[in-house]
Amino acid sequence: MFFLPFFLATLLYLFSELMVFATPRLLSLLIKFTTDSTEPAWHGYFYAILLMLITLLTTFVKNIFYYIDQTLATQLRSSIMSAVYRKALVLSNSSRRESTVGEIVNLMSIDSQRLSDTLLFVNLAWGAPFVITIALYELWQLLGPSVLAGLAVLILLTPINGFVANKIKLLQTSQMKFKDKRIKLLTEIINGIKVLKLYAWEDSFAKQVERIRSDEISVLRRSAYLQAFASFVWLTTPYLVALASFATFVLVSEENVLDAETAFVAIALFNIMRMPITQLPATVAQCMQAQVALERLGKFLGSSDIDLTSVCQDKEESSAIAVQRGQFSWGALKDEESWTLKDVDMTVGQGNLVAVVGSVGSGKSSLISALLGEMQRDEGRVIVNGNVAYVSQQAWLQNASLKDNITWGEAYNEQKYRKIIDACALQPDLDMLPGGDQTEIGEKGINLSGGQKQRVSLARAAYSNADIIFLDDPLSAVDAHVGRHIFQNLIGPNGLMKGKTRILVTHAIWVLPQMDEIFVMQDGALVERGTYTQLLYKEGNFSQFLVQHINKNNDNNDGDENDGIEELCNQLDESLNGKVLLRQLSRRSGRSEGGRLGSFRKRRRTDSTESSHRHSECENDISDSTRNLEKDSIALKELKVGDGKNGQILIHEEKAEIGKVKWKVYHFYCLAMGALTAILPILFFTIAQVCQAGSNIWLAQFSKSSTSSDNATVDEFDRTGFLIGYGGFGVGQSLFFYFGSLVTWTGTMVAGKNIHKRLLNNILHLPMSFFDTNPSGRVMNRMSKEIDVLDSVLPMLIGAGLSCFAQVATTLIVIIASTPIVTIVIIPMMVTYYFIQSVYIATGRQIKRIEALAKSPIFSFFSESLQGVSLIRAFKKQEDFVQVCQKKIDKAANAFICNLAINRWLLVRLECLGNVITFAAAILAVAGRGTINPGIVGLSITYALNVTVILNWLVRMTAEIEANIVSVERIREYIEEEREAPWTVEHFKPYSSWPDNGRITFSQYEARYRPGLELVVKELSCQIDSGEKVGIVGRTGAGKSSLTLGLFRIIEAAGGKIYIDGIDIAKIGLHDLRGRLSIIPQDPVLFSGTLRINLDPFNNYSDVDVWQALENAHLKDYVKGQMHALQTTIDEGGSNLSVGQRQLVCLARALLRRSKILVLDEATAAVDLDTDDLIQATIRKEFAECTIITIAHRLNNIMDSDRVMVLDKGKIAEFATPADLLSNKESIFYGMAKDAGLV
Question: Quick check: helix, strand or coil at residue 1187?
Fold first, then answer.
């Protein structure tokens, strides 16, 4: 695929480089022609025409070479990106811990680019020495052995260049390590931005990023000095070679005359050498970057894969699932202990429904992962016979329509689809969504509640036609009645999944009697297995678990779970053995509990009709109960606004700027550089080019004197004076080039540092609505790819561009001064140049913007895929996702190929114009034979030959600078986004102990999510007293979450006020507010680092305080059991902890802060019943004097509240004690309680 086109490109490159050497020979013939009046005139015109034809042929051949080569580079980059994506889908768990999302994104965005760019330098790597060798040979023919002095200079400079190149490589490796760390941390910050805002932790994480960035800048600074020195050495080399050669030539013998022909043919050859020598630093630097990138890619692609043989199929095995002597581990890093599953022996028959139960951290989810092949199999054998579907504990959805998330690539079947929608209780949600099932689901399901996301995940599994379905606690995210509906209609013995093998991790004991088999997990071991009855007879772990659960619900009078216990009694009563078990259970649970259990049995017998009616009512009104149970969400209410078409779209297409990059973008970048560092390079490069032009004029005058003098001693210039002058110009040129390069690199590095700091600062200050409507990949593209352009690309482009501009100006001045009549040709040529450049830049700039837009979806899709990789593997969807990724990569590559094509369009035309200027200079020299000095002819044609190269280079650099300054434009767009309110307000800071009472007052409070959207909270007025416990309930969209988000000012008030202990929260800084409140969110978010940093990122508390918080959160024993205790490493996203353990860490955060106001947002949905009981007891004890606001997911959780607030359409519908509300049968709360089976 690559070899033949690359071989063709190499042949074209070789041909074009050989053609270049024809021009010095033609120059020699032209100079001879101007000095020999006897040579026929047509010879001169023939030489001029031949010179033009050769330069035109070189132009066409070289541009074809570049087009083929860059097309291959694009294909190579696309292949690398695809290979990285493929590898990411099969990484083992230990490899995933070593390669974070940020590092893998860097491999796709930066390393793939650097490696593919190197393809362009491969031919330069051998071509440059080849061209230099031929040039030296030609110079030997011209100057004789004197050229050896120049060769000696080249050889002496080689070790210096090697040393510099090696140092640059080491710095590149170091820089990429810091870049990976920075991108990894930034990825976690963007993904967990809501948690950071709620906890007011932005400052701490910003400082962590800045520390890493500071180390990265330190490496960049050293790299800048080396790059500047490398530029100095390489730019000085051609001049030193020429100086050494000329000095040796004129000093070795008085017979050696440096006439015009010898001087300018030599200069032409030195100019041919100049480009490869000048390109060598970039080639070496690029090769160093490519070697670093290749090593990083090699390490990643060579890392261990998930063992595809750990789970196999065996037709001889009759069971659907069989595990024999299984030992599994998650794979540990160095100095870490690996969490293991041990002694796993299990079989699950075809079509059976089995449950996995156990406490938090017992290994339930790990068992599912082991059966999916996600854990490392150390011993034993795992057989899974059939296709698999998987519902994870934390639902994962794609940024696609709701319907596409359910069908997930399967053929659409209307009847089947509708049955699944009904079984998953999704129809009421579809009715509410403005686009129905065509509504776009935001990134990570941002516009759905936790329960809605889980039910969509269940629908996806049901639609998949899998033989075996793994269900990791999907019922915990929904209300018990919705859970019962889903179990009966979807999962249970008579549900849509009947006949399929189902493994259900659950904390709901009411489903257990209907299980074919139950597996009990404890401390990473499968300790019990059997039917429900068998496990009760054993009186082991399971029966103890069951008794504790019944006792708890008896004490709590939990209506939903009481129904479950009645169902248990009902099923046990149906058999003789079951009655015996009930009596045993009653005796074990104690006299009072036995009485309660007996009362359940009695009530079941006497009130069976009422109970049956209530269940029937719940089934008929499932849509109502669904509305009670689901938490409202930000984006869902946003979607309601406007027409249906608009409501379907949440993530809008990224918009590209149109037209020229505005001057304020350049002004912005120059200010970031600093005024002095922006101006000085222009001055230094101009002086350097003046010195270069001066050296050539000095050479022309010397050659004129040499040819006009008959004496050995030159009249105007002696040899020593010539060498001193020529050397002086060279020293000046080199020094000013060095200063120009150094200031440019330093200035651009400062600009990159300042712009990154401002970008990070502004992103952390952006409101949550921005992150809800902009995918994380889009934001990360700014923080990674665009910042890399500022760090690595713009410094080289700006340095080269300024140098070229100065060189073009001096070249044109020299040509016009040498042969003024050429002005007639040059002026229209320059006008044409400008016109072509304008057309190109307008097109190239916009294509560059389109290319940048096309890259963002790649990284968004990539990050999304990594978050759901376990589901992708479980459903065997890897190839489908690879194809989607490749289409996105191809779309970005198409934009790049377009950019490449117009680049070639530009360069062909510009080089042709340059060739016309060369032809004009040659024709005028021929026509002016006898009137123009041969030295001037040589100077003019030499510069004319060079003007093509440097004009093309200037236009190329100008276009590249404008194309890449788009990165600054895109970053500036985010820097200028509207911020949220200030974090601190110095003139209005609350007193240090605020809030000391915890009294909250809402006064005509109103809120909306963004300007132009409908109000989600309307005219809300109430007071929550100090230490009061308030539950908030309401149907989906009622405004429950909106109210708490308003309390934290995640959304700002559209009207009215909120007072906490008499202070208007709108007047104080966000951190002064959020830092004094506590929240335990529904989705526990942890960050990579140590456990201590996750609890106390500002290091405000002592270790004693932290240990006390862990003890109260029931995590102390677990943490003490870890090798590094508080310094235990937390993986990215907390992936090395169970969901329940993550929730306990969030509880420990709240305990550590000990605010007077605590908000519970479905805080116990992901934990087992015993842990839920412990958490509730801890909250009651540790926050006894605090004001607690609980968003109710299950009504029984707020039945012991002092008061209950019922919201309806953003207004308070009811606000009273639970008893008062339940006494009024017309109240909304009574209806909700009735639906939930509490009355």
Answer: strand
In angstroms, the CA 869 to CA 1132 distance is 14
pLDDT, position 618 = 37
Q: In what order do the strands lie in the sheet with 1063-1064?
A: 1017-1024, 1000-1007, 1053-1060, 1063-1064
State if pTM tops 0.85: no
Q: What pLDDT shows up at residue 468?
A: 92
β 1203-1208/1187-1191 pair status? unpaired
CA Rg, the chain, in Å? Answer: 38
| 588 confidence band (pLDDT: 50, 70, 90) | very low
Q: Which residue has the tokens 């030997």?
A: 140
1079/414 Cα distance (integer angstroms) = 43
3-state SS assignment for residue 1206? strand
3-state DSSP of 558-585? CHHHHHHHHHHHHHHHCCHHHHHHHHHH
Structure tokens at 263: 């001087």
SS3 category, 305: strand
Type of residue at 914: G
- Cα dist from 709 to 471, 626, 705, 929, whole Å: 99, 106, 6, 20
Q: Are 1156 and 1150 in contact (CB under 8 A)?
A: no
CA dihedral over 466, 469, 474, 478, signed as positive or negative: positive
Residue type, 89: L
Return the top range by mean pLDDT from 635-639, 952-956, 1156-1160: 1156-1160
Range list of β-strands (E), 611-727? none
Q: How many other C-beta atoms lie within 10 A of the C-beta of residue 630?
A: 29
Nearest-angstrom CA–CA distance, 97 and 1050: 32
pLDDT of residue 710: 46
- In 3D space, the residue among 285, 261, 59 whose CA is nearest the CA of residue 939 turns out to be 261
Provide the 8-state DSSP code for 438.
G
> Could you give phi then psi for residue 1207, rounded to 5 degrees?
-100, 145
d(CA 447, CA 1000): 28
Q: Which helix (H) or strand (E) holds 477?
A: none
Q: Which of 642, 741, 676, 753 is nearest to 1012 (CA)?
A: 642
Residue 547 — very low, low, confident or very high, per pLDDT cuts 50/70/90? Answer: low
The answer on pLDDT for 470 being more than 90 is yes
Residue 178 scores a pLDDT above 50: yes
Q: Mean pLDDT lowest for which of 274-278, 724-728, 1118-1122, 1200-1204?
A: 274-278
Q: Provide the pLDDT for residue 34.
A: 77
Q: Is the dihedral of CA 374, 375, 378, 381 positive or negative?
A: negative
CA distance 983 to 369: 42
Ranked by mean pLDDT, the top range of 363-377, 470-484, 1168-1182 is 363-377
Which of 825, 911, 769, 932 minimizes the C-alpha distance to 442? 769
Give the Cα separation of 944 and 1146 in Å (integer).
72
* Rounded distance between C-alpha atoms, residue 874 and residue 464, angstroms: 11
Residue 1090, beta-bridge partner list? 1129
Compute the distance between CA of residue 863 and CA of residue 834 in angstroms, rounded to an integer: 43
The pLDDT confidence band at residue 933, using thresholds 50, 70 and 90, is: low
How far apart, in whole angstroms, are the C-alpha atoms of residue 1163 and residue 1191? 9
Alpha-carbon distance of 410 to 463, in angstroms, equals 8
Predicted pLDDT at 608? 37
Task: Note the pLDDT of residue 1052.
Answer: 87
Q: Report which of 207, 195, 180, 202 is spatially closest to residue 101, judged by C-alpha positions.
A: 180
Q: In a 10 Å sphere around its CB, with 0-12 CB exposed, 13-18 middle and 19+ buried, how is residue 258 labelled?
A: buried
- Judge whether 244 and 235 are in contact, CB under 8 Å: no
Residue length, the chain?
1239
Q: Identify the bridge partners of residue 326 per DSSP, sorted by sequence position.
A: 344
Res. 646: pLDDT tops 50: no
pLDDT of 612 reads: 37
Residues 317 and 298: their CA atoms lie apart, in Å, by 40
